[in-house]
Design a protein that fits this description.
The chain is of the alpha/beta class and about 375 residues long. Helix content is about 40%, strand content about 15%.
Length: about 375
Amino acid sequence: MNGNNAAKHGGNLYAAIRQRGGNINELLDFSANINPLGLAESVRQTLHASLEAVIHYPDAQAHALRQALCQHYHIDEDMITIGNGAVELMYILCHMLHPKKVLVTAPTFSEYESAARSSGAAIEYFYLQADDDFKIDLKAITEQLAGIDIVFICNPNNPTGTLLTNKELEKLIMAAKQQNTYIVVDESFIDFLPIDDVYSCRQLLPQYSNLIIVHSLTKFYAIPGLRLGFSLANPDITELLHAGKDPWNVNTLAQNAGVVALHDHSYQEKSKEFINKVNQDFYHSLLTIPGLKPYVPSANFILINLKETNMTSKELQTALIAHNILIRDCSNYPGLSSQYIRIAVKTPVQNNQLIEALKKFLGGTI
Protein backbone atom coordinates (compact mmCIF):
# COMPACT_ATOMS: atom_id res chain seq x y z
CA MET A 1 0.00 0.00 0.00
CA ASN A 2 1.38 3.41 -0.88
CA GLY A 3 1.06 6.58 1.12
CA ASN A 4 -1.81 7.87 -1.02
CA ASN A 5 -4.04 4.94 -0.13
CA ALA A 6 -3.78 5.73 3.55
CA ALA A 7 -5.46 9.09 2.92
CA LYS A 8 -8.61 7.36 1.63
CA HIS A 9 -9.70 6.44 5.14
CA GLY A 10 -11.50 8.62 7.61
CA GLY A 11 -9.70 9.82 10.70
CA ASN A 12 -6.55 10.92 8.90
CA LEU A 13 -6.02 13.88 11.23
CA TYR A 14 -2.30 14.03 10.57
CA ALA A 15 -2.78 14.53 6.83
CA ALA A 16 -5.37 17.23 7.52
CA ILE A 17 -2.97 19.06 9.84
CA ARG A 18 -0.11 18.78 7.35
CA GLN A 19 -2.36 20.25 4.68
CA ARG A 20 -3.89 23.13 6.63
CA GLY A 21 -1.68 23.69 9.68
CA GLY A 22 -2.81 24.02 13.27
CA ASN A 23 -3.04 21.12 15.70
CA ILE A 24 -5.18 18.04 16.16
CA ASN A 25 -7.09 19.44 19.15
CA GLU A 26 -8.56 22.18 16.97
CA LEU A 27 -10.33 19.68 14.70
CA LEU A 28 -13.75 18.14 15.26
CA ASP A 29 -13.37 14.76 13.57
CA PHE A 30 -16.59 13.29 12.18
CA SER A 31 -14.62 11.25 9.62
CA ALA A 32 -13.65 8.36 11.95
CA ASN A 33 -16.23 6.14 13.67
CA ILE A 34 -14.82 5.98 17.20
CA ASN A 35 -16.77 5.68 20.47
CA PRO A 36 -17.56 9.32 21.37
CA LEU A 37 -17.24 8.56 25.10
CA GLY A 38 -13.49 8.26 24.50
CA LEU A 39 -11.01 6.30 26.53
CA ALA A 40 -12.45 4.47 29.54
CA GLU A 41 -10.85 5.62 32.79
CA SER A 42 -9.96 2.00 33.58
CA VAL A 43 -8.05 1.75 30.30
CA ARG A 44 -6.35 5.10 30.87
CA GLN A 45 -5.12 3.90 34.26
CA THR A 46 -3.82 0.57 32.98
CA LEU A 47 -1.92 2.32 30.18
CA HIS A 48 -0.13 4.48 32.74
CA ALA A 49 0.52 1.47 34.97
CA SER A 50 1.85 -0.58 32.01
CA LEU A 51 4.50 1.87 30.81
CA GLU A 52 7.36 0.21 32.69
CA ALA A 53 6.43 -3.15 31.13
CA VAL A 54 7.47 -1.97 27.66
CA ILE A 55 11.09 -2.81 28.52
CA HIS A 56 10.06 -6.46 28.07
CA TYR A 57 8.77 -8.25 24.98
CA PRO A 58 4.97 -8.55 24.88
CA ASP A 59 3.36 -11.90 25.65
CA ALA A 60 3.54 -13.71 22.30
CA GLN A 61 0.56 -15.87 23.30
CA ALA A 62 -1.45 -12.85 24.56
CA HIS A 63 -2.72 -15.24 27.22
CA ALA A 64 -4.57 -12.76 29.44
CA LEU A 65 -6.23 -11.09 26.46
CA ARG A 66 -7.33 -14.41 24.98
CA GLN A 67 -8.83 -15.40 28.34
CA ALA A 68 -10.68 -12.09 28.54
CA LEU A 69 -12.06 -12.61 25.01
CA CYS A 70 -13.23 -16.12 25.91
CA GLN A 71 -15.11 -14.82 28.94
CA HIS A 72 -16.61 -11.77 27.24
CA TYR A 73 -17.73 -13.35 23.96
CA HIS A 74 -18.26 -16.94 25.21
CA ILE A 75 -15.91 -18.45 22.64
CA ASP A 76 -13.31 -21.23 22.63
CA GLU A 77 -9.69 -20.15 22.96
CA ASP A 78 -8.52 -22.35 20.08
CA MET A 79 -10.60 -20.19 17.69
CA ILE A 80 -8.85 -16.90 18.57
CA THR A 81 -6.07 -15.07 16.74
CA ILE A 82 -5.02 -11.70 18.14
CA GLY A 83 -4.22 -8.96 15.65
CA ASN A 84 -2.57 -5.56 15.48
CA GLY A 85 -6.01 -4.29 14.52
CA ALA A 86 -8.56 -6.34 12.59
CA VAL A 87 -7.06 -5.13 9.31
CA GLU A 88 -3.77 -6.94 9.94
CA LEU A 89 -5.70 -10.22 10.20
CA MET A 90 -7.47 -9.57 6.89
CA TYR A 91 -4.10 -9.22 5.17
CA ILE A 92 -2.64 -12.30 6.89
CA LEU A 93 -5.75 -14.31 5.99
CA CYS A 94 -5.49 -13.42 2.31
CA HIS A 95 -1.74 -14.08 2.20
CA MET A 96 -2.17 -17.49 3.83
CA LEU A 97 -5.26 -18.66 1.90
CA HIS A 98 -4.10 -17.28 -1.50
CA PRO A 99 -7.59 -16.66 -2.94
CA LYS A 100 -7.82 -16.31 -6.69
CA LYS A 101 -11.12 -14.41 -6.67
CA VAL A 102 -12.71 -12.43 -3.84
CA LEU A 103 -16.25 -11.04 -3.70
CA VAL A 104 -16.97 -7.81 -1.82
CA THR A 105 -20.15 -5.81 -1.52
CA ALA A 106 -20.01 -2.26 -2.84
CA PRO A 107 -19.94 -0.01 -0.96
CA THR A 108 -18.08 -1.47 2.01
CA PHE A 109 -14.82 -1.11 3.96
CA SER A 110 -11.98 -0.67 1.44
CA GLU A 111 -9.42 -2.85 3.21
CA TYR A 112 -11.15 -6.09 2.19
CA GLU A 113 -10.34 -5.28 -1.41
CA SER A 114 -6.86 -4.01 -0.54
CA ALA A 115 -6.01 -7.13 1.46
CA ALA A 116 -7.24 -9.38 -1.34
CA ARG A 117 -5.35 -7.48 -4.04
CA SER A 118 -2.15 -7.57 -1.96
CA SER A 119 -2.23 -11.36 -2.20
CA GLY A 120 -2.84 -11.33 -5.96
CA ALA A 121 -6.58 -11.96 -5.95
CA ALA A 122 -9.02 -10.60 -8.50
CA ILE A 123 -11.98 -8.63 -7.13
CA GLU A 124 -15.62 -9.09 -8.00
CA TYR A 125 -18.18 -6.58 -6.74
CA PHE A 126 -21.73 -7.12 -5.59
CA TYR A 127 -23.29 -3.70 -5.93
CA LEU A 128 -25.80 -2.59 -3.32
CA GLN A 129 -28.63 -0.40 -4.56
CA ALA A 130 -29.33 3.06 -3.15
CA ASP A 131 -32.99 2.76 -4.15
CA ASP A 132 -33.22 -0.24 -1.82
CA ASP A 133 -31.40 1.58 1.03
CA PHE A 134 -28.28 -0.49 0.27
CA LYS A 135 -29.83 -3.67 1.65
CA ILE A 136 -27.70 -6.77 1.08
CA ASP A 137 -29.55 -9.32 -1.05
CA LEU A 138 -28.06 -12.56 0.26
CA LYS A 139 -30.01 -14.69 -2.18
CA ALA A 140 -28.48 -12.80 -5.09
CA ILE A 141 -24.99 -13.04 -3.54
CA THR A 142 -25.49 -16.80 -3.17
CA GLU A 143 -26.14 -17.02 -6.90
CA GLN A 144 -22.79 -15.27 -7.52
CA LEU A 145 -20.64 -17.70 -5.48
CA ALA A 146 -19.35 -19.86 -8.33
CA GLY A 147 -15.59 -19.47 -8.63
CA ILE A 148 -15.36 -17.23 -5.55
CA ASP A 149 -12.82 -18.20 -2.89
CA ILE A 150 -13.65 -15.60 -0.21
CA VAL A 151 -16.65 -13.36 0.40
CA PHE A 152 -16.25 -10.40 2.77
CA ILE A 153 -19.38 -9.23 4.58
CA CYS A 154 -19.34 -6.26 6.97
CA ASN A 155 -22.10 -6.52 9.60
CA PRO A 156 -23.13 -3.79 10.39
CA ASN A 157 -21.89 -2.60 7.02
CA ASN A 158 -19.56 0.37 6.89
CA PRO A 159 -20.53 2.91 5.52
CA THR A 160 -24.21 2.09 4.90
CA GLY A 161 -25.23 0.81 8.34
CA THR A 162 -26.96 -2.21 6.78
CA LEU A 163 -27.50 -4.95 9.36
CA LEU A 164 -28.11 -8.69 8.82
CA THR A 165 -29.27 -11.31 11.30
CA ASN A 166 -27.20 -14.44 11.82
CA LYS A 167 -30.15 -16.49 10.53
CA GLU A 168 -29.95 -14.61 7.25
CA LEU A 169 -26.18 -14.98 7.08
CA GLU A 170 -26.30 -18.67 7.91
CA LYS A 171 -28.05 -19.37 4.60
CA LEU A 172 -25.17 -17.73 2.76
CA ILE A 173 -22.55 -19.51 4.88
CA MET A 174 -24.24 -22.86 4.27
CA ALA A 175 -24.41 -22.30 0.49
CA ALA A 176 -20.80 -21.10 0.45
CA LYS A 177 -19.64 -24.22 2.28
CA GLN A 178 -21.02 -26.35 -0.53
CA GLN A 179 -18.98 -24.25 -2.99
CA ASN A 180 -15.79 -24.42 -0.85
CA THR A 181 -16.03 -20.66 -0.36
CA TYR A 182 -14.96 -18.88 2.83
CA ILE A 183 -17.25 -16.27 4.33
CA VAL A 184 -15.42 -13.59 6.31
CA VAL A 185 -17.82 -11.60 8.49
CA ASP A 186 -16.45 -8.36 9.90
CA GLU A 187 -18.23 -7.65 13.20
CA SER A 188 -16.15 -4.62 14.13
CA PHE A 189 -19.20 -2.44 14.85
CA ILE A 190 -21.40 -5.09 16.42
CA ASP A 191 -20.45 -4.11 19.98
CA PHE A 192 -22.39 -0.87 19.51
CA LEU A 193 -25.69 -2.75 19.17
CA PRO A 194 -27.87 -2.94 22.32
CA ILE A 195 -28.01 -6.74 21.95
CA ASP A 196 -26.04 -8.68 19.34
CA ASP A 197 -27.41 -12.19 19.91
CA VAL A 198 -29.49 -12.22 16.73
CA TYR A 199 -26.76 -10.60 14.64
CA SER A 200 -23.37 -12.03 15.60
CA CYS A 201 -22.24 -15.18 13.82
CA ARG A 202 -20.10 -16.34 16.76
CA GLN A 203 -22.57 -19.09 17.64
CA LEU A 204 -22.30 -20.50 14.10
CA LEU A 205 -18.54 -21.10 14.24
CA PRO A 206 -18.68 -24.72 15.52
CA GLN A 207 -20.98 -25.70 12.63
CA TYR A 208 -19.21 -24.05 9.71
CA SER A 209 -15.53 -24.55 8.97
CA ASN A 210 -15.75 -21.94 6.17
CA LEU A 211 -16.83 -19.13 8.54
CA ILE A 212 -14.23 -16.61 9.72
CA ILE A 213 -15.06 -13.61 11.91
CA VAL A 214 -12.85 -10.54 12.23
CA HIS A 215 -13.49 -8.03 14.98
CA SER A 216 -11.86 -4.72 15.87
CA LEU A 217 -11.65 -3.61 19.50
CA THR A 218 -10.36 -0.14 18.63
CA LYS A 219 -13.66 1.46 17.59
CA PHE A 220 -15.87 0.54 20.54
CA TYR A 221 -13.14 1.12 23.13
CA ALA A 222 -11.76 4.26 21.45
CA ILE A 223 -8.19 2.98 21.10
CA PRO A 224 -7.47 3.15 17.33
CA GLY A 225 -3.96 4.46 17.99
CA LEU A 226 -3.13 1.26 19.88
CA ARG A 227 -4.36 -1.11 17.13
CA LEU A 228 -6.16 -4.17 18.52
CA GLY A 229 -8.43 -6.79 17.04
CA PHE A 230 -9.02 -10.51 16.81
CA SER A 231 -10.36 -13.19 14.52
CA LEU A 232 -12.42 -16.28 15.22
CA ALA A 233 -12.25 -19.38 13.05
CA ASN A 234 -11.97 -23.14 13.19
CA PRO A 235 -8.70 -24.40 14.73
CA ASP A 236 -7.15 -25.21 11.34
CA ILE A 237 -7.63 -21.66 10.02
CA THR A 238 -6.55 -20.25 13.37
CA GLU A 239 -3.34 -22.27 13.21
CA LEU A 240 -2.74 -20.97 9.69
CA LEU A 241 -3.19 -17.37 10.84
CA HIS A 242 -0.79 -17.91 13.74
CA ALA A 243 1.79 -19.28 11.30
CA GLY A 244 1.45 -16.20 9.09
CA LYS A 245 1.82 -13.48 11.68
CA ASP A 246 4.64 -11.87 13.63
CA PRO A 247 4.82 -13.64 17.05
CA TRP A 248 4.90 -10.23 18.83
CA ASN A 249 2.36 -8.52 16.60
CA VAL A 250 0.37 -6.98 19.48
CA ASN A 251 2.24 -4.76 21.92
CA THR A 252 2.02 -4.86 25.71
CA LEU A 253 0.03 -1.64 26.06
CA ALA A 254 -2.60 -2.83 23.59
CA GLN A 255 -2.88 -6.25 25.24
CA ASN A 256 -3.28 -4.78 28.73
CA ALA A 257 -5.75 -2.18 27.52
CA GLY A 258 -7.82 -4.92 25.85
CA VAL A 259 -7.98 -7.04 28.99
CA VAL A 260 -9.16 -4.14 31.15
CA ALA A 261 -11.61 -2.87 28.51
CA LEU A 262 -13.26 -6.27 28.13
CA HIS A 263 -13.83 -6.40 31.89
CA ASP A 264 -15.23 -2.86 32.11
CA HIS A 265 -18.93 -3.73 31.95
CA SER A 266 -19.99 -0.28 33.15
CA TYR A 267 -18.27 1.41 30.20
CA GLN A 268 -19.75 -1.12 27.79
CA GLU A 269 -23.33 -0.62 28.96
CA LYS A 270 -22.97 3.15 29.12
CA SER A 271 -21.56 3.20 25.57
CA LYS A 272 -24.38 1.09 24.13
CA GLU A 273 -27.09 3.18 25.79
CA PHE A 274 -25.40 6.43 24.78
CA ILE A 275 -24.86 5.55 21.12
CA ASN A 276 -28.31 4.10 20.54
CA LYS A 277 -30.02 7.20 21.88
CA VAL A 278 -27.68 9.76 20.36
CA ASN A 279 -27.54 8.23 16.88
CA GLN A 280 -31.34 8.34 16.60
CA ASP A 281 -31.46 11.95 17.80
CA PHE A 282 -28.69 12.86 15.35
CA TYR A 283 -30.44 11.06 12.48
CA HIS A 284 -33.71 12.91 13.12
CA SER A 285 -31.88 16.25 13.29
CA LEU A 286 -30.27 15.54 9.92
CA LEU A 287 -33.71 14.82 8.46
CA THR A 288 -34.70 18.43 9.14
CA ILE A 289 -31.98 19.82 6.84
CA PRO A 290 -33.34 20.37 3.32
CA GLY A 291 -31.53 18.41 0.63
CA LEU A 292 -29.98 15.77 2.88
CA LYS A 293 -30.99 12.12 2.82
CA PRO A 294 -29.46 10.33 5.82
CA TYR A 295 -29.72 6.54 5.98
CA VAL A 296 -30.98 4.95 9.20
CA PRO A 297 -27.97 4.24 11.44
CA SER A 298 -27.37 0.92 13.21
CA ALA A 299 -24.04 1.81 14.82
CA ASN A 300 -22.01 4.99 15.42
CA PHE A 301 -21.99 6.40 11.86
CA ILE A 302 -24.49 7.75 9.34
CA LEU A 303 -24.31 7.71 5.52
CA ILE A 304 -25.83 10.78 3.86
CA ASN A 305 -26.88 11.44 0.25
CA LEU A 306 -26.21 15.05 -0.80
CA LYS A 307 -27.87 14.88 -4.22
CA GLU A 308 -30.61 17.41 -3.53
CA THR A 309 -28.11 19.96 -2.18
CA ASN A 310 -26.39 20.35 -5.58
CA MET A 311 -23.07 20.06 -3.77
CA THR A 312 -20.45 17.36 -4.09
CA SER A 313 -18.98 15.52 -1.15
CA LYS A 314 -15.58 17.09 -1.84
CA GLU A 315 -17.04 20.61 -1.92
CA LEU A 316 -18.80 20.07 1.40
CA GLN A 317 -15.73 18.45 2.94
CA THR A 318 -13.56 21.39 1.85
CA ALA A 319 -16.04 23.93 3.18
CA LEU A 320 -16.36 22.23 6.56
CA ILE A 321 -12.65 21.69 7.11
CA ALA A 322 -12.22 25.44 6.79
CA HIS A 323 -14.38 25.54 9.94
CA ASN A 324 -12.32 22.82 11.68
CA ILE A 325 -14.82 20.02 10.99
CA LEU A 326 -13.78 16.81 9.21
CA ILE A 327 -16.25 14.54 7.42
CA ARG A 328 -15.71 11.46 5.25
CA ASP A 329 -15.93 12.08 1.50
CA CYS A 330 -17.34 8.78 0.17
CA SER A 331 -16.68 9.44 -3.52
CA ASN A 332 -13.85 6.86 -3.60
CA TYR A 333 -16.06 3.99 -2.39
CA PRO A 334 -16.94 1.57 -5.19
CA GLY A 335 -20.73 1.68 -5.38
CA LEU A 336 -21.01 5.28 -4.18
CA SER A 337 -20.30 8.64 -5.81
CA SER A 338 -19.56 12.28 -5.10
CA GLN A 339 -23.12 12.57 -3.75
CA TYR A 340 -22.27 10.75 -0.51
CA ILE A 341 -20.64 11.56 2.81
CA ARG A 342 -20.34 9.57 6.03
CA ILE A 343 -20.30 11.16 9.46
CA ALA A 344 -19.55 9.66 12.84
CA VAL A 345 -21.96 9.90 15.76
CA LYS A 346 -20.32 11.99 18.47
CA THR A 347 -21.57 13.71 21.62
CA PRO A 348 -24.82 15.74 21.43
CA VAL A 349 -22.91 19.02 21.73
CA GLN A 350 -20.52 18.04 18.92
CA ASN A 351 -23.34 16.67 16.78
CA ASN A 352 -25.20 19.96 17.16
CA GLN A 353 -22.09 21.83 16.03
CA LEU A 354 -22.13 19.88 12.79
CA ILE A 355 -25.91 20.29 12.42
CA GLU A 356 -25.63 24.07 12.78
CA ALA A 357 -22.69 24.21 10.36
CA LEU A 358 -24.63 22.18 7.78
CA LYS A 359 -27.73 24.36 8.17
CA LYS A 360 -25.73 27.57 7.75
CA PHE A 361 -23.65 26.21 4.89
CA LEU A 362 -26.50 24.67 2.94
CA GLY A 363 -28.43 27.87 3.51
CA GLY A 364 -25.56 29.78 1.94
CA THR A 365 -24.59 31.76 5.03
CA ILE A 366 -21.15 30.27 5.73
